[in-house]
Amino acid sequence: MGDSRFGWPAPRPGRDTAPRDRAGRRRATAHDIDGRPLGALRYPELAAAGLATSARDLGRFLLAVLRDPSGMERPQPATDGHYGLGLEIRRLRDDDVLLWHEGVNRGWHARLLLLPRHRLGIAILTNGDGGGAVADAVERLVVR
């Protein structure tokens, strides 16, 4: 995964401060619920909002989990059986399992859905405050 990191590059004085990838290309811009660009938002606490990644790298992550989901779908201690290694676990009918994770920040909404038994992984990435509705609609289509 060559285009993922925790943290954001330092702003460049006198230039636009939108996030950029390692090659210097602009990343997507966050938008509010009315579609207005929010500009570069910085979050000093890197535990939340700290991962900057590309759709390609996220797809590579999904493929890696689908190759061997055993650690991710194994409930971890003190989680009431609902959390694996970084992914939440939802038991579905017919003993099926949905692994998922969500990231939400102002102007951004991302959700990962994995159905290991079906070898299906979906990354839903939006750059708007209304992205939760999009993610919900996709999830309803996939998880029945």
UniProtKB/TrEMBL annotation:
It holds the Pfam family Beta-lactamase. Residues 13-22 have a biased composition (Basic and acidic residues). InterPro entries: Beta-lactam-related, Beta-lactam/transpept-like. Residues 1-31 are annotated as: Disordered. Coiled coil: none annotated. SUPFAM superfamilies: beta-lactamase/transpeptidase-like. It comes from the Bacteria. Residues 1-137 form the Beta-lactamase-related domain. This is Beta-lactamase-related domain-containing protein.
